[in-house]
Amino acid sequence: MFRLHESIRNGHTYMIAEMSANHGGSFEHALEIIRGAAAAGADCLKIQTYTADSLTIDCDKKYFKIDNGGLWDGKTYYDLYREAGTPYEWQAEIKKECEKYGMDFLSTPFDREAVDFLADMGCEAIKIASFELVDIPLISYAASKKKTMIISCGMGSLEEIKEAVDACLEAGNDDIVLLKCCSEYPAPWEDMHLGNIPDMMERFKLPVGLSDHSEGFLGAVVGVSLGACVVEKHVKLEGVESADDAFSMTLSEYAGMVQAVRAAEKIKKGPDYSLSRGEENSLVYRRSLFAVKDIKKGEPITEENVRSIRPGNGIKPVYLKDMLGKPCPHDIERGEPVTQKIYLEIVKKL
Fold first, then answer.
1. Which residues, including other chains, have CB under 8 Å from residue 224's CB and lie 6 or more apart?
2. Residues 157-178: what's their mean pLDDT?
3. Per-residue 3-state assignment (H helix, E strand, C coil) for the chain
4. How far apart are CA 332 and CA 293, in angstroms?
5. What is the mean pLDDT of the chain?
6. What is the model's pLDDT at position 70?
7. What is the model's pLDDT at position 246?
8. How confident is the model at residue 348, as a pLDDT?
9. Which residue from 17, 134, 188, 237 puts its CA 20 to 30 A from 252's CA?
10. What is the C-alpha R_g of the chain?
11. pLDDT given for residue 66 in this prediction
12. What are phi and psi for residue 204, nearest 5 degrees?
């Protein structure tokens, strides 16, 4: 059973480890990433289901060459996707290995055939990549399978996000989770705009998570503190080169992120103004009213013989004004707290 919604109900951030191209063309590396991700605390492992031909065409025209100065500069789209893809014949075994180690399996399809392939494998959720957010026919077809739709919203305007959500709803599928995403690799912090997370939750009335391409795990912690119910992050094996390794976490770094996210879940709880057990134990260190001089019976209470000091064994300092100038009902030694009983005697309420 796909456990995403159970995690959301329980306030447990659903942690997705994205393998993508980081198997480096080796099935054994793929299995090693699965085992490492499970040990690191991932709830789900994600891959991508495509061939180079399902994403683009093998063409040398300028439109099909990457020349943005980024990680893949100089490659053609076709060569990049041929290098980075996860072979279809691996994917059932990858899913089985995930289940063996107690993780969910998730994949991103890029055409109808891939959607059908994943549905036939028994996948319970479908991930839509940010770059496919505007492919409404693909989203409509995927949503028609009545699987959980996890939609990354990188580069998406509000109108484009709404179109994708509406496509799912029109297909009779309201089981939707949106992911805030900055589609830069790696994503600089100033471009992440994680304040969109609570805004997206309010606008679309849907669960919202984070697909994070930034360095480290600060983005994940901030995202969770702002309400993200899912964190997706690329993971890699140390020393294995791939198209995605430059913006991916090692498995040990991912484990550290999971620990930080679990801490953030605890930290962000509230509102709750009740005292913790530790705070109750700290009450004694508050200020309270004490006799700071010996006070004889009948002597007036003044700011010189009663003061607000630590510790907190006496009554609250706010009560001093009610007692000033009134006679002390009996002797009080220096260093004794002014108790509630003494206060009531002084103000003639006993």
1. 13, 210, 231, 261, 264, 265, 268
2. 98
3. CCCHHHHHHCCCCEEEEECHHHHCCCHHHHHHHHHHHHHHCCCEEEEEECCHHHHCCCCCCHHHECCCCCCCCCCEHHHHHHHHCCCHHHHHHHHHHHHHCCCEEEEEECCHHHHHHHHHCCCCEEEECHHHCCCHHHHHHHHCCCCEEEEECCCCCHHHHHHHHHHHHHCCCCCEEEEEECCCCCCCHHHCCCCHHHHHHHHHCCCEEEEECCCCCHHHHHHHHCCCCEEEEEEECCCCCCCCHHHCEEHHHHHHHHHHHHHHHHHCCCCCCCCCHHHHHHHHHCCEEEECCCECCCCECCCCCEEEECCCCCCCHHHHHHHCCCECCCCECCCCECCHHHHHHHCCCC
4. 8
5. 96
6. 67
7. 86
8. 86
9. 188
10. 30
11. 86
12. -100, -10
Q: At what angle do helices 88-100 and 27-40 cross, to 10 degrees?
A: 30
What does the pLDDT look like over 116-146, one tens digit per residue? 999 999 999 999 999 999 999 999 999 999 9
Residue with tokens 């040398």: 60
In angstroms, the CA 5 to CA 147 distance is 12
Could you report the per-residue pLDDT of 224-253, keeping only the tens digit for each?
Answer: 999 999 999 999 999 998 888 888 999 999
pLDDT at 75 over 90: no
d(CA 2, CA 266): 24
Give me the percent of the chain exceeding a pLDDT of 90: 90
Q: In this structure, which amino acid lies at residue 31?
A: L
Tokens of 240: 């294995």
Mean pLDDT across 149-178? 98
Q: Are strands 288-291 and 306-309 parallel, antiparallel or unpaired?
A: antiparallel
For 196, residues 6+ apart whose C-beta sits below 8 A from its C-beta are: 180
Q: Give pLDDT, residue 79.
A: 87
Annotate 239-260 with b (16+ C-beta within 10 A) or e (fewer).
ebebbbbebbbbbebbbbbbeb
